[in-house]
Amino acid sequence: MKLGAIITYALLLFSFFTPVCVSAQTNVGVSCPEAAQYYSKDSINIVTFGASTVEGVRGLGFQSLLESNFANCYTGKTINITNHGIGGQTTRQGLLRIDNAIANRTGFIVLNMGINDAIAMTRGVGSVAETTENMRLLITTSLKQRLVPIICTLQFVDDRTTREYIPINTNIRNINAAYRRLAAEYKIYLADVNAAMRRDFSLYQDPFHPNARGYRLISFVIFDAINKAIFDRFLKFVVTQNYPNPASTQTFIDIVLPEPDKINVQIYDIMGRLAKTVVNEYFNTGKHTLEINTTTFTPGIYFFKISSDSGQYNSVKKFIVSR
User: Fold this and answer.
1) Are 84 and 63 in contact (CB under 8 A)?
2) What pLDDT band is residue 83 in, cutting at 50, 70 and 90?
3) What is the reported pTM?
């Protein structure tokens, strides 16, 4: 088969669409991140945007799996995932519809697009530089809408028996390198699909598209990238009750910070007298566990007072020391 015919076949294949069949896939084994316990919002809203891998092929896709991942871990939260994948499209075509896809949307956008660009380049149409600039515009347009972009690297095509596909993978390598640079430049999040799938073509249903196992893996990669964004940007301030309570010789308390700040933790007795300064220093975003030695405390009722240097975060917790 000549290269032109192969590329035509590939483009037709990438244009193929069958509605995603949710019941055809199951998802087990998702590991829930700690961020799920401290997510500050009531809903998780995700726009998925791209070509056929996003649209879904032959009844398979990653959106229902991704929704299941979040539903399993973020209990009580509303999960809303929209599918804006159109098979066969390049990043240039994506630019023509990005505004409509993200109008009035909040939350996250998953950008998974560029394989059709790589195919077109083998016919002398487009370049890595053009694809990079198109993705840059997709990112900046999303940022203007105050969405958090998740940019996906592209899976390889199966070139083991079709040598004419080898140049496509060369283009994919170059595009992925450019996407990684864009993620670093804009300080956004990378869902490294290529690193996860590698060249394991047992994860494919044809030379281009993932099978059920492949889509399941993609759902995990995207899930992890969004969780990283949640950990960095959308945690709520939490101070847990100390444990154990009552305390005997030691107790622990967890503090979750939405952003870096200087934290002062002091313990007062029932008369309001300062009994101990536990810590007075800067902490980064995330969960911190403090260990408090209570061997010198007289049995009785005490209070933790937690405050931040910025004045944004304050909490008081009562606890008991008992022998």
Assistant:
1) no
2) very high
3) 0.84
Token reading at 58: 């032959």
> 261-284 burial string, b = 16+ CB within 10 Å, else e?
bebebbbbbeeeeebbebeeeebe
Determine the average pLDDT of the residues in 226-246. 96
pLDDT value at 53 more than 60: yes
State the Cα–Cα distance between residues 297 and 269, nearest whole angstrom.
9
Tokens encoding 322? 């008992």
Alpha-carbon gap, residue 208 to 7, rounded angstroms: 12
CATH 3.40.50.1110 residue ranges of the chain are 3-233
**Numbers of helices and strands, H then E, in the chain:** 10, 12
Burial of 176 (0-12, 13-18, 19+ CB in 10 A): buried
- C-beta separation of 182 from 151 below 8 A: yes
Q: Are 182 and 136 in contact (CB under 8 A)?
A: yes
| 238-321 placed in CATH 2.60.40.1930 | yes
Tell me the pLDDT tens digit for each residue of 24-41.
Answer: 344 456 899 988 999 999
Q: Using only the alpha carbons of the chain, give its radius of gyration.
A: 25
From-to residues of CATH 2.60.40.1930 in the chain: 238-321
Q: What angle do CA 281, 282, 284 make, to 5 degrees?
A: 145
- Residues 128-143: tens digit of each pLDDT: 999 999 999 999 999 9
User: At the topology level of CATH, where does 3-233 sit?
Assistant: Rossmann fold (3.40.50)
